[in-house]
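Recap from last week: sequence in, structure out.
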Amino acid sequence: GSDRGADRAAFMATLINTAKLNDIDPQAWLADVLSRIADTPITRLEGLPWNWRPARALMASAA
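Predicted structure tokens:
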């Protein structure tokens, strides 16, 4: 392994564990956030684990 690989593994572990600490399924959270990240401004905080709700829940609450 390399230092760069270790940094990336630590980053992913941090994301996954933060989701778990917020009672969120890490796989569902990552899949949802990664599918929307390209169209999301950096100033939007809805995708952070402690603010996140699945896209389908956001659509339901808007209706």
